[in-house]
Amino acid sequence: MGDRDGRRFPPDHPPRRMIASGTHMPGVDPAVFETDLNTALRYERPDPRVGDYITEYYVLDSAGPEVMGAIEWIMPGSANIRLFMDERPVNVTIGNRIYAPTPHVALYGPTSRALRVEAFGGVTIGMAVSALGWAQLIDQPANRFRDRIVPLADAVPAQLASALHKRLGASDMALEVKGILDAFFVDTLGEPHPDEPAIRIMSALIVDETVEDIAIIADRVGMSVPRLRQLSLRYFGFPPKRLMRRARFLRSLLRMYAAGDAADYSLISRGYFDVSHFLRDSEEFLGTTPRRFMAQQTPYLRQILRARTAVMGEPAQALHPIDAAI
After folding, report:
1. What CATH number does the domain located at 2-192 have?
2. Where are the domains of the chain?
3. pLDDT, mean of each 10-residue run, the chain (326 residues)
4. What's the predicted TM-score (pTM) here?
5. Which fold has domain 196-317?
6. What are the DSSP E strand ranges found in the chain?
């Protein structure tokens, strides 16, 4: 492993052809995936039998000297499974926790902070796990994994993690990924969890901009506020109030981000009392102000947000709608 400017870099790999960018989703303009970056990206909507549990699939690829040690950001959101298909390291910082490198087959727990990512190229295959998916796949409380990254085998049976990696490793890591993951999760997901009706209702309400009171959610779910908090920690990783605040902040930030104007506070959610209220949330969830964040070069993040919006309808996992009805 080489050393440049005091940083450790992986050995050079021979040139290879990057994956084919795009999606199987009908009606999405291919121009959404076009970029001047030396990167490629796929975004896929899962099979309807899977989509409420594993809400999206994505494949990221990059190559070339300009991506060695590139810094990018991931918005806070739901849990994710990520498989790094090359031997190149990916270093991630979440708050004061540093994972250098992350496991090659990893579970990213639900997050309340933006993730700083240092990458060195290669292919990443990921899938977002909703609270419904957590209930189905992971027999441990989500709050144990919040704002953490662990080997996937720490959370699911080792043979399941190994089978997923083996199937994807034998694929083209592009056009075949959606079919492989659809088949894998159709086979893996079982009968609905007993808590699924409550999780569904809560999932829908925490991203509803018109709902601002936890008591409303508790009433709709049909349980006390303390019991709702327990449910939320078990499957979502955070208390309901924090989830609602995360959604409110991201909805506001991403409106600014899309408009390209970090000073247009007319775009923030009506749930904020004033600008200082919004900026306090920015420090908590983003770690900086919107102005400073948007002053950074984040071209890959912009590409991902654009592609996700085109395929999934929302730019961020934390805003993904779930049907409250089964």
Report:
1. 2.60.120.10
2. 2-192, 196-317
3. 37 67 96 87 97 97 85 96 91 96 97 95 96 97 98 97 96 97 97 96 95 94 97 98 96 89 84 93 94 87 94 95 81
4. 0.92
5. Arc Repressor Mutant, subunit A (1.10.10)
6. 2-4, 7-9, 39-44, 54-62, 70-74, 79-84, 90-94, 97-99, 105-108, 115-119, 122-129, 149-151
